[in-house]
Amino acid sequence: MVAKEQSTWRYFTVSSRFRKVLLLLFMVTLLVAFLYVPRPVQYHINYIRRIVHGEIRTDYTQPHIEIQSHDAETTTTKKNFMFIKTHKCGTSSLVNVFYLLGVRRKLNFVIQRGDRSHNIQLEMANGSRPLLAPRPGTVYNMQCQHGTFRPNIEHTIMPKETSLYSTIVRSPVSQFKSAFSFFGAEGKVRKKLGSQATIDELIANYLNSHPPPDDNHVTTSLIINSIANDLGWTSFSNRPELEGSTLQEKIDAFIQHLDSEMDFVMITDRMDESLVLLKEYLGWNITDIMYLNRMVSSKPKVSMSDETKAKILQYQVIDRQIFDHFNASFERHIDKIGREKVSSLVKQFREMREAFENKCFNKNKTVKGPYNSISWEITDYGKNVNVACTFLQTRDVILTKVITQLQLSQDYTVPINGSSKPYLLKPIVMKLQRDFANNADPV
């Protein structure tokens, strides 16, 4: 009996010790997870200090950092910029333009902690993925990462009174075709049908695997109606007041909702005009909107039949109507700024961009990029003289990590250390900021 009691006591003692070891290992793991990132520990000390002193705020009514160019005219009093990034609408190139402007002006971006900081999940901002706070005494100036539009949350972070809300849409056929290839659907269907299958056969097979849209169901995904998906269709269409409504009634209400939320909607198919209008609304210089094409597909272009295009439009029922609406409203924005002025600025911009591109690239040599994309080789000028060329060609995922490091610092200039890609951009970031301080344009 005594031996049995001793055995039982030893069991509980060992279990207790084992639990203590597990607890200790868990605490060490948490500590390592917090500290083992390639940035100075001082960053974390500063961040904790800001939490303790109440500098991680929910009040976003403090003075803003200057986002406008002092010598540029503006047609609005809105100084900050909320950009809802949509998939396969040319946004990889656009985001780098916004990042370049932000780094030069040391702006605050809406960015979340975590390995996927290039994606915004605002519903988790008060939980497992908190936002990086703007620097003390300032507000958020810009949001441009991927994320579903959630206006009830966005408004608290960047009030509409001081922020220009914008997004970008694309012709629904070309947008579908790009997403169909990029997200792997084309490859999967080709494996099933064989390498000799035409693009018409591939798309027909894919669309036939989804129910056609009706009042009871409409597909929204990364490929079908993806713009609607990014702009918050799912939550909007499930609102109680829309219960019992037809699909068309829901689409009409959704477009009206977007119209009230967006100050200006850009058009991928009219990129240069879109950027010129945006610069006019936000008071930027023409050099602030200079872009270089990124993530250009290396696959040869294949034409589709009219029948296939019609079938795509049948399934893209929401995106098609969103595009038609904002493509029409785009003309009103041109009229507001002035057609002659816009035409003149677009001509000037295209000439400047072509000259900039020719300086940045050696067009006799192509290089492979991620996701079967291609680009030209960057020249010595683009690497050493005007580093904006290199910055604009860097993957936006990497630039997001760079900006995260800068924003964690107190003055946006704390040196970035390390050996991986984000940290190798340190001299580029420093030169960009020096050039801006010396009034050197990135062209």
Description:
With about 450 residues, the protein is α/β, with parallel strands linked by helices. It has 19 helices and 7 strands. The strands form 2 sheets. Strands 2-1-3-4 form a 4-stranded parallel sheet. The radius of gyration is 25 Å and the shape is globular.
Number of strands: 7
* Spans where pLDDT lies below 50 across 5 or more residues: 1-14, 35-65
User: What percentage of the residues does DSSP assign to strands (E)?
Assistant: 5-15%
What summary fits the major beta sheet? Answer: 4 strands, parallel
Secondary-structure element sequence? HHEHEHEHHHHHHEHEHHHEEHHHHH
Strand order in the largest sheet: 2-1-3-4
| Overall mean pLDDT | 82
From the helix content, strand content and strand pairing, which structural class follows? alpha/beta
Helical fraction equals: 40-55%
The coarse silhouette is globular
Rg (C-alpha, Å): 25 Å
Determine the number of helices (DSSP H or I, runs of at least 4 residues).
19
